[in-house]
TrEMBL record, chains A, B:
Gene3D superfamilies: Acyl-CoA dehydrogenase/oxidase, N-terminal domain (1.10.540.10), Butyryl-CoA Dehydrogenase, subunit A, domain 2 (2.40.110.10), Butyryl-CoA Dehydrogenase, subunit A, domain 3 (1.20.140.10). It is an enzyme of class 1 (oxidoreductase). It is found in: Peroxisome. Residues 134-243 form the Acyl-CoA oxidase/dehydrogenase middle domain. This is acyl-CoA oxidase. Residues 279-442 form the Acyl-CoA oxidase C-alpha1 domain. SUPFAM superfamilies: Acyl-CoA dehydrogenase C-terminal domain-like, Acyl-CoA dehydrogenase NM domain-like.
Length: 656, 656
């Protein structure tokens, strides 16, 4: 890498990162100001809940929440904008999550699973927060396995009502946001029984509190109490004792019950119906991926600004005068803590933008494209998993990189860490999601997401001659060109040859997925127990998903840089992209060695490249985090806003 | 690995783990009972501080704190017991840390740096908690670099007093435990000036509050406020405005000032004196390593018990009846999250016991052994770093492995995570500690810990023909025998051949350390800037420390198993030890491939071995965590104490 200085065009970079929904980001920057939205710490649970609700009420008035709702009810029909709006709420992740519960999950379920009568009746009040609500899916006994939920909704044709019931503790709705304090209505997922038959999981509108805030008859509401973080969100538990709701309360887009109890659905297969219904809720998962990205950016912005001015030891051989002490970000070890994570954060940012664009465009498309929908769901599962794992790891590292200061609540990192910690679990446990992604890769999106169980999949594989087709996912002509120009598998290409890098990650993905397919096929043919077959390969399954995501994320990064209008800035982003690739390869270089994709010398050169790139990018680190456009008042950490800079006699960072 | 069932002798294993200071562990189990010591959550900061102080007062009456103090003042002169007592305080890590501040750091500094007059005057009140105190070392500007502290203590021969002063914000004492609320006295580390000369950092007794709890004249006390965790500890800031203390308040074991201002010390070199003084404080670091181990054990106990009964998905191909749902710990991915971490926790436990024994024996030895002391300090630095990193990573993983339940405060993991998070920073930043360890390896403990700066070290290396001598650290005859019996570097040995494993880790350490030495030597000869030379090799420096610790920890594990009196239990521990080694090798298998220590096939076999060992050990997982002997009331998590078991119809875990 050349060491020559590059000029970073800050406006260009900000514009590139803000992307298609820049106006929404600007709107959020404008709305989330002042005392009401300032990050706080040390509140009691009840104070924090009250504050979060007050923020939510102010948001309701800002118009931001209307983006995601149909124009027919006063919304703006802009799904992409709704996801981007959500991810900007980094001033307090409790607000982000409470917003997600009210408008994303609760409102989103009514939009996606209800029909016009539900839209008209409920959505205006959902948007205005007149009707605060819950998304009551997860139960104490089942969260990941939604198909096994145990709450029942039994149709009583005499009364033309559904009877919603919690048969046992396992069926209790658990961890439900908005339930403990504020929610008045819940979308309840339950096993539908009509006409004496089970029709699988459906959703119904169930009032849980009356106008005075008292629980409705037959509804028992519990409080989950203190959590590691997100204590501004009132998570609770719901139990139903034969609670009756009118027939019209069934969200009936994918399954309806006639007055006499006859069940009908546009989708015949019970299994496919279930996964179609779940699939419409994919936005929540994409939103969490985005939100975890912003939390990561905030932590990095704080740690990088601090590391840029914090000093500790003198340079050896000098007299130890304070002005000669080394800035901690000048240490290679410190750079290695923060800069590869920064590169990956950029990469994931572009992957997120790509995914939101797909979601948005698909929502506007007039014809239903089954395969595109399955790809979207798989990508959402994978990106949610890798983005939230990255957040957990990076924010943890930022805490350490800030030393004792990173442990002080006033410096925000503790709250970012504690709040985002559950992101790896909610909206789908990451380990489960990665397996769903891999299953889709194995079936090449031919079958619906999760539609095949392990046994089905093993049988499916057994009948196939399997070959992975690597389908490029972004900037396809450019990537085709880059790969075509790469010198091939040999050693000739420089490590920073983008075509070679792309091919390297494609090749790994193909090999890992095909190896897995062969393994399952062999085992399936031998008639082994499907569970054991799958279970013994579970680490392989997870590796396959990860390899796929590494490649997809790289493609998005390449596509993003291609949109950059300034040459010098693009050069810098290309170095950052090199750091992303080199750190991905370094982390998994054992695989590349085991499969003879890298020679031992070249593997060592990868480690050296990470070091070189860290050193080369270090001078730009502060500009690179500032380009995220997070307001100083959201960061709020004194160590990032001038306290340490003043002490060290450095110019203050930030932009007011 | 054979799959045959082994019988685990629970009493034998408990005895083995309890070790030399079993009676202290039993005493702690006996003392830490009932409502006063129960884990709590959701307290305000002030409530938590008050509760922690009340617990500390009860502890003071229990006699536990007297272990670490000299018999001359009513203590028991049992340093090992004091460390083991500290590490048992897992019922609330705030209590653990507050105990460490009062008796370990504050009392320990008076013991180690003071002379008889200080012992007699202060220690009885320190033990009884009549005199709550602070260890005021870290400053806002310098924590890791203690030599650069800026607080001054200037001797005034006219008044026969020291004037303690904080010249600027950078010199403010920061993060000081016991300062914000309870402390009355502080051991203050300051640059000593006497007779117009600087004598380096020394410690003095400085009263900070009067009998009514008001700050003493000239002392300004601040409050660090809310922290990520440990909010039962009142961390604060101290500033001194020309505060005068009598001459006798200098802790004068290593440096004294005569009435006329003449300075004298038994150690001539200022640098060596400084590092000798710091070295006497090594117990604090060893205690933190132990405490992080107990926090890790508690989190694993909760996650393993929960994973042993929690179910989610049905087995494929069955009808999905609840009783056929798979326990999550039966999934390979779940085993991989918890069981290698459990194996490493065992390994670190034995390494900790080994280290405490060394510390203890050295404290009793009549002659001073310089080299043994340096080795102890290096080992303490390394073990503190690897043990606390392991804690952070493992507790995080336990949170994820428990899903939403792991995010609920009632299930304890959130508090364990937040409290232990700072362990990687305090008592020495891990990254700094690992570098100190590696420096000692490079000088083969020939020079004092940290005594050489980077320039000195580069010069030192330049003059040497360097060869690492691997010195075995535990069960030496046994390990000599095992290594001698190993089939050598080839492929012939089974992966579970202990001699081969030992040699593999020894060989890696030797190669990494020698490679580093050669690199520094070359660069030093070329006359490169010492900082740049060191900085460019910083990742190599950290790798060397880690390779050393992996080997030392393995030796301790092997030695521990050798003490096991039951054959079947020992066999099981040997499997666990295999898992420790295989997961260490798996994590760094790129290195073994790059350096042709493993063939690609053998590297793949290592991954398979981890899987096999996980499956083989899974049936014993609950017994293995129960053997830690943590009281159920310390774990306190409903998910680990029967709530989930009752729901699933499984027998309740735990032992009352």
């Amino acid at each position: 890498m050349t060491e020559q200085a590059l000029r970073l065009d800050e406006a260009e970079l900000r514009g590139l990162l803000d992307g298609r929904w820049a106006h929404v980001r600007e709107q959020a920057r404008d709305v989330l100001r002042g005392e009401l939205f300032a990050p706080v710490h040390g509140l009691s649970v009840e104070e924090h809940r009250a504050r979060t609700l007050a923020q939510l009420e102010a948001l309701a008035k800002s118009g931001l929440p209307t983006y995601g709702f149909p124009e027919s009810v006063g919304g703006r029909g802009d799904v992409g904008a709704s996801v981007v709006g959500f991810e900007m709420m980094v001033n307090d992740l409790s607000l982000m999550v409470k917003m997600g519960v009210q408008w994303g999950l609760f409102g989103g379920a009514i939009s996606a699973l209800g029909t016009e009568r539900h839209h008209t009746e409920y959505l205006p009040d959902v948007m205005s927060l007149e009707l605060p609500g819950c998304f009551a899916m997860t139960e104490t006994g089942h969260g990941s396995d939604v198909q096994s939920l145990r709450t029942t909704a039994t149709y009583d044709p005499g009364a033309e009502e559904f009877v919603v019931h919690t048969p046992d503790e396992s069926a209790r709705k658990d961890y439900i946001g908005n339930a403990a304090r504020d929610g008045r209505m819940a979308v309840v997922f339950a096993q539908l029984n009509a006409d004496g038959e089970e029709h699988g999981v459906h959703a119904l509108m169930v009032p849980i509190r009356d106008g005075r805030g008292e629980p409705m008859p037959g509804v028992r509401i519990g409080d989950c109490g203190v959590k590691a973080g997100l204590n501004g969100v009132d998570n609770g538990r719901l139990e139903f004792d034969h609670v009756r709701v009118p027939r019209a309360n069934l969200l009936n887009r994918y399954g309806d019950v006639a007055p006499d109890g006859t069940y009908s659905s546009p989708i015949e297969s019970k299994n496919r119906r279930f996964f179609t219904m779940l699939g419409t809720l994919v936005r929540g998962r994409i939103s969490v991926a985005g939100g975890s990205g912003t939390a990561t950016k905030a932590a990095l912005a704080i740690a990088v600004r601090y590391g840029d001015t914090r000093r500790q030891f003198g340079r050896p051989g000098t007299d130890g005068e304070p002005e000669r002490e080394v800035r901690v970000l000048d240490y290679l070890a410190h750079q290695r803590k923060l800069l590869p994570a920064l590169a990956r954060t950029y990469a994931l940012h572009f992957a997120q933008e790509e995914l939101v664009t797909r979601l948005h465009d698909l929502s506007l498309s007039s014809e239903h494209d089954d395969r595109a929908q399955r790809e979207l769901e798989s990508r959402a599962a994978g990106l949610k998993a890798v983005a939230t794992w990255h957040a957990t790891r990076t924010i943890q590292m930022c805490r350490e990189a800030c030393g004792g200061a990173g442990y002080m609540a006033e410096n925000r990192i503790p709250q970012l860490k504690a709040d985002s910690d559950i992101f790896t679990t909610f909206e789908g446990d990451n380990t489960v999601l990665m397996q769903q992604l891999t299953k889709s890769l194995l079936t090449n999106f031919q079958d619906s997401f999760g539609d095949l169980d392990q046994l089905g999949l093993v049988r499916f594989m057994a009948g196939k001659v399997f070959e992975t087709v690597i389908e490029r996912t972004a900037a396809i002509p450019l990537i085709d060109r880059l790969v075509a120009a790469a010198p091939g598998r040999g050693e000739e290409a420089g490590l920073y040859n983008r075509g070679w890098q792309l091919e390297l990650l494609e090749d790994r993905e193909k090999h890992v997925v095909e190896g897995l397919a062969a393994r399952l096929r062999r085992s399936g043919k031998d008639g082994n127990d499907a569970f054991e077959t799958f279970n013994r390969a579970q680490d392989h399954v997870l590796t396959a998903g990860r390899a796929h995501m590494d490649r997809v994320v790289l493609e998005a990064f390449v596509a993003g840089i291609d949109r950059c209008g300034d040459t010098s800035t693009a050069k810098l982003l290309n170095r950052l992209c090199d750091l992303y690739v080199m750190s991905v390869v370094e982390e998994d270089r054992a695989w590349f060695l085991e499969h003879e994709r890298l020679s031992t010398n070249r593997a060592k050169a990868v480690t050296q490249a990470v070091n070189d790139l860290c050193r080369g990018l270090r001078p730009y680190a502060v500009q690179l985090v500032d380009a995220f456009g997070l307001r100083d008042e959201w960061l709020s950490a004194p160590i990032a806003l001038g306290a340490e800079h003043a002490r060290q006699g450095d110019p203050a960072p930030g932009r007011g």
